[in-house]
């Protein structure tokens, strides 16, 4: 576990720093953005994006933060982090030839895999919580405010969404020995999903519909997680983890 | 002393097996990697697994530890039946894989700690002691180690735990002769203290030196199980005639064949099968005949492992 945590620590830290820099820059830019919001609405190319700007115009800084931090930074960087942390979990060991050594220690396979899963999930999700927790302080610097509890709820929704992608990549990792092609394939799929989200006619086919501005604003408005979205996401994670365990028990070096 | 000449220790004969395998099998797709196999290894015994590449030696060791899931069969190690994913067995054995792949970013000491996860502190200290005794720089990163040093690191982790069963796959591969001898001495001492060892190897000198018994495997099947007694019995039916050159050996081979004597030519040598009825008398008759080419030397009653391998597999050992 110790080696696993150490191997995830540095990438996780870099990912957290990147998220923090992005949200800090976005918040410091908020006064300028607010001033020119109508102009942005006119020049943006996609209708879906124009709708997001309209939403910001109506509801203010909260929608702006949700768009910049959760929809943009966390969805994009988080997806990359989810794939990066998951895909090497087992396939990385097989690729470097250390899988047999790993499997031959006196530890049950269930425990081995769960440790990896939890370590990677924490490495992916903790930066989201940590950077979200700094948002109220950053907003104070530009004379705005947002509740920490609302941000933590959205961070939970976002983490759960990314955890499904993480679990999918993790599950694939238990059956393959070539992490790089899998990672690239998943990242291309993600880019494709992000692209179709921007096209109004296809937007409903994008998995990013499960973690977009509408979802985040709804959570803030209601003050609790949306069970109709989070429930299936949690079930998806559980099923993929179960499949990973099943496949890992049959894995040969 | 070689395996053929080594008397079997009394405690090997008297105790229940430390490793008991019945009907163990494993298939990978269309390839039957292990056909149903039975094998017993007694406490204090070192059993050598011999066979060409892909014969099933490593698969057998992996199935015993649960690294590869067995399809069928029963495995009992140190009185414990194989259960679940084999973690109960892995706690009772040490296993050193044939492939040497390590975490280069860890130090030698850190790597030992990683390898020995789930073992007690005394084992960690002992492993470090073994590694340092072998001359490994345990504070250096493993990426700076040579192939042989990595092999020694795996050996230190395999020999340190106070368990009664060790499963070792090519444990001395890549080591220089002096280091190989030190490792084998440790193994022998460990076995003399009661550990049962299953040792897979391609190195005849190694298995001949430390093993009490040999199991020859090919295409996933147990071809033969040889004890000092059976090797000696085989040796009594064979004689090796050595000639001045290969031409003389070929000439002798033709003459032997014409006489209906079964012989295998191997460069300057002929392995002559003397038959089961009074082989010494047959040997005397052959040597007494002046019409047959005279050998420069004759070895009787001793069967080198390379020749036994040839007998069993019909091909030269590498």
Please give a quick description of this structure.
With 253 residues, chain A is mostly helical.
Structure write-up:
The complex is a heterodimer of chains A (253) and B (318). Chain A is mainly α and 253 residues long. In chain A, 80% of the residues lie in helices and 0% in strands. Chain A has twelve helices and no strands. In chain A, helix 7 (109-133) packs antiparallel against helix 12. Chain A is elongated and about 60 Å long. The mean pLDDT of chain A is 93. By secondary structure, chain B is an alpha/beta fold. Chain B folds into two domains: 10-225, P-loop containing nucleotide triphosphate hydrolases (Rossmann fold, 3-Layer(aba) Sandwich); 238-300. Chain B is 36% helix and 25% strand. Chain B contains twelve helices and 14 strands. In chain B, the strands form three sheets. In chain B, strands 6-7-8-3-9-10 form a six-stranded mixed beta sheet, with helices on both faces. In chain B, helix 4 (108-115) crosses helix 5 (121-133), helix 4 crosses helix 6 (147-159) and helix 5 (121-133) packs antiparallel against helix 6. The longest helix of chain B has 16 residues, at 177-192. The radius of gyration of chain B is 22 Å and the shape is elongated.
Describe the protein's topology.
The complex is a heterodimer of chains A (253) and B (318).
Chain A lengths: L1 H34 L1 H7 L3 H13 L1 H27 L3 H6 L2 H5 L5 H25 L1 H6 L7 H26 L5 H20 L14 H10 L4 H23 L4
Helix pairs in contact in A: 1-4, 1-7, 2-3, 3-4, 4-7, 4-9, 4-10, 7-9, 7-12, 9-12
Chain B lengths: L9 H5 L4 E10 L2 E11 L4 E5 L6 H9 L6 E6 L2 E2 L5 H4 L2 E4 L11 H8 L5 H13 L13 H13 L5 E5 L7 H16 L3 E5 L3 H7 L2 E6 L2 E6 L1 H9 L1 E5 L3 H13 L4 E4 L2 E5 L5 H10 L8 E4 L4 H9 L5
Parallel strand pairs in B: 3-8, 3-9, 6-7, 7-8
Antiparallel strand pairs in B: 1-2, 1-4, 4-5, 9-10, 11-13, 11-14, 12-13
Helix pairs in contact in B: 4-5, 4-6, 5-6
